[in-house]
Please model this.
Amino acid sequence: MKIYFLFLIVFLIGCSELEMIGDFSEPIINTVVKDVGSMEVYFCPRDGCEEKLVDFLSDASNYIHCAVYDVDLPELTSLLVNKSSLIDVKVIIDEDNEDEFSADFVMVDYGYGLMHNKFCVVDGAKVFTGSFNPTVNGAEKNNNNMIFISSRILASNYEKSFESLWQGERAEVKNSKIDLSGIRIENYFCPKDNCGDEVKEELEKAKESIRFMTFSFTHEGIANVLLIKNQEGVAVSGVFENRGSGSEYSKFAVLDYQGIPVRKDGNPATMHHKVFIVDEKTVITGSFNPSKNADTANDENILIIEDEELAARFLEEFEYVWEEAKI
Model:
């Protein structure tokens, strides 16, 4: 009888937690939180990323909080300096780039791994993220993607991560699963959220195709999922950044040996994407390279977005990069 009542209590507690879907002030696990918002995606260097990002941040009326590995874009740094006299501006950069941008509102991260994020939160309402470091090379030479998302819940996730980084800590994502105007979004922060496992889980869902563009790909587990999916008949293909693709740690050789169509990029600068496209409907992007360091040491973030229109845009970018790449 005591066991029965204990089970009943646990069951009721579980039910009460599931009813918290609309409240994102407390941690929520394995629930989907609904929100209303929109997304825009741009690809560098073709889409004028500096101008787009400056425009995105210009409307800020309360605060701009950015965690970016590196920043040196002239128009952007000028905007941040000017805005800092009017609103709350805070920027975190990695110690590798502490000489690139100096101001009273800039904090240098001296953590164990890289502070490798590329995101900004504006007024608790919208987020910029993707693979794009806001640098001259990132905007004018390198292949990159950046996404602007209007979502108070997603902004809350990123703001929590920013606040933790500012305090020298690491955040635990509150609302990892979001329904944004009917679009499924999952949001994770590495290393606390085990990003590699989340990427593997999404890739394992593939039924027809996986396309990828990766700056650095050394992750054993993610490579194994691609090998298994290829054996199952899923069409797998991808582009590696040329630099490092010949190293002993890169997964280029093993995927190529197993008959997966892979190419080394043809950009004389850098192919900087960290992207997987699953079944032409789901996009995985963010700052996370599929590597051990990104998974276990660096501060990173990823988005998993299920939306055919967004996937179509990323597939266009994949075809562009694929055609430029070396066989």
The chain has two domains: 36-190, 195-296+307-324.
